[in-house]
Amino acid sequence: MESSQGHLTEGQVFKILQDKLNSKPCRNQGFVLDGLPETFSQASMLFSTEDTESRDSDVESRAPGYNKIITPDYVFSLEASDDFLTERVRDLPQGGAEEAQLEQDELLSRLSRYRRLQEAEETVLDFFDFREIHSEHIELSADDPEYVGVVKRITEVVGLPKNYSRSFEEHKEGDPLKKEAERRQVLAAERRRRKEAALAEMAAQHEAWHRGMQEVQRQEKERLEAAALPLRIYLMEFVVPTITEAMTQCCALKPDDPVDFLAEFLLKNEEE
């Protein structure tokens, strides 16, 4: 990277491009390469399975095995005169030409480079011809400004576009991801509802149990009070008056042995 002053080398660029062409989207849905590769050596670097430095110069050695997975099935060469291209660029808005780097000097430089590449001993189209992938030459002209003929010819060679999106029936049924998300939301809401219902039922059961316990305690208290009533009457009639009198005498006299005093008082009261 230091020798290239921070720029990717050609080999690194084509290695990245190879990885992209080997990706699932490109292998499943196809791809379009526009302007790359530009030369025979670049095509060899990108598509061949052999080391380009080890090949001889004869035609047979120029057609080794190639990576059929990433090599295009169709090659189109759009041909136009310099005057046509110059006029087409001249019709572009000023901002569009600058953005595409197609100002007058840049355009002439790029056209000159392109013509030199096409006059080379072996061109990028030769790479495909050697592998029986013959390019389709399509002439561009001012008579077809919308390039309807170009699109028609490409369609005749390649076939009608293939729709990789969802079908009308699938669209009508709705987005499966959205439906799955909605289904999960419904399930989550149902789980929350069941949890809240279970908690409410538990709270109601606890409240009923608490009220039941309070009622049991009240009834037990009433039963004990009812059972203790005869005993209370007996004590109040025969025991409490004597004990009360004994306690009163004890408090008034303050004997040294209050227990013995109470015992003697009760015995004396019993004899009387």
Automatic annotation (TrEMBL):
Keywords linked to the UniProt accession: Kinase, Nucleotide-binding, Transferase
InterPro entries for this protein: Adenylat/UMP-CMP_kin, DD_AK7, Dpy-30_motif, P-loop_NTPase
Top-rank taxon: Eukaryota
Molecular function GO labels: ATP binding; nucleobase-containing compound kinase activity
Biological process terms in GO annotation: nucleobase-containing compound metabolic process
Protein name per the record: Adenylate kinase 7
